Amino acid sequence: MRAYGHWIDGAWRTPDKGHYAVVNPATEQVVGEAPEATEAEVAEAVTAARAAQGGWSLTGPRQRAAVLDRVADLLVQHAAELVPLIQAETGATLRVASAVQLPSAVDRFRRAARGALEPDVLPLPPWPVRASPLAPGGLIGAAAVRRPVGVVACITSYNFPLANLAGKVAPALAMGNTVVAKPAPQDPLCCLELGPLFREAGCPDGVFNVVTGSGTGAGELLVSQSGVDMVSFTGSTSVGRKIAQTAGRSMKRTLLELGGKGAAIVLGDADEKVLRSAIKAVGSVWSFHSGQICTAPTRVLVQRPLYERVVTGLKDYAESLTMGSPVENSTDIGPLISADQRKRVEAYIEGARVQGARIVTGGVRPPLEPGFYVAPTLITEVTPEMAVAREEIFGPVVVALPFEDEDQAVHIANGTSYGLYDYIFSSDTARAWALAGRLHSGNVGINTLQRHPETPFGGCKGSGVGRDGGSFGLHAYSELQSVVWPS
């Protein structure tokens, strides 16, 4: 167990308010101690980032790319230490931690390194203009140039702490910004470990800083800092709204990736192959990080003739999964992040039961101690108005609803305040393509949960503002400046 400091201006900063315990959700034992941030420490981190921003923005793209590539190399070199730490903090299974949590962070740093070398000037064709009281006429040349925003506050969620932070920090730095990161309170230690890696990679002091805190205070202080130019946040919609309000007072740029209530629509034309794919995809709500993922297809909408088959298939899938210690290779389902989150998920399940829904499988606390476990739960006889069908639960809970035709499916799918990621399963991909256009969702997967790393990622409605991913992510962390001259 280690007591960390804040990472500010290229060095550890001993916290004035001391530390708080970070708890392993599988063992309920303390993993390490993270620093509690004060207003002065948050301001110190922002000041360091502000002081470093001018120099970093003038650094050549190849030098910025080299730093980001070197960070990726160091993450790979330190995988043997980082993967167990990620597991201990998050409760992620070995499969998720080793195949997703760390590799995704590495990939994002490498992609941003390539992105630093992408052209940042878009030349525009010369344009003949008439003389005016403003200036003489003539042929006018112009270009649109991407410039850094400035100091970016990167505030991340607890489900994928390192990968999520890499997805913000890497493109922000590639575009010449500097960063103050504020990881989620539950699992900030692997993010703090990035500090020394950046220094080893040759990153100038102050370019990357990390502050932490046990509650919302550190994030609120960071968002309200006048020296912050942009806030990039991943987390709940309720917190995202508060950040937008605070940022709006000083016109800070925001990139908000918020909650989701993904619908997996299974059309009646689905053949056996597509049906198996759909069941496995929806089953990932249970087996992939215990449903703690905003893009999860937590609602399965099935055209009536196939409804019972899908429900039976999902029940069998859920009951075939192994729940237990995340460090065991055989474990499919690990714990939730905390006792509070388990209590929240259990309250949703009990609320559905009280409202008359049927718990097909799960719904009771498994006999696993210690650890914050919730059994994979499938709920039917649900109406679209019930909380379990409308609100983000962030746990291993799936609700199944039948529909008669596409109009009803669209009505149900669009009937929540979210619009992050939906899915369509059909043997007619042209039909699925047309249906995707009717979904108020930032992303739609057809017959797959697989992602394309270059697509713009973000949500509609209560699921957020803005897009990241690939070159779109680079653009999100830049300002467009128009430069005009006489030819």
From TrEMBL:
GO terms for molecular function: oxidoreductase activity. The keyword Chloroplast does not apply. InterPro entries: Ald_DH/histidinol_DH (IPR016161), Ald_DH_C (IPR016163), Ald_DH_N (IPR016162), Aldehyde_DH_dom (IPR015590). Its EC number is 1.2.1.-. Keywords: Oxidoreductase. Residues 12-483 form the Aldehyde dehydrogenase domain. Belongs to the aldehyde dehydrogenase family. This is Aldehyde dehydrogenase family protein. It comes from Streptomyces orinoci (Streptoverticillium orinoci).
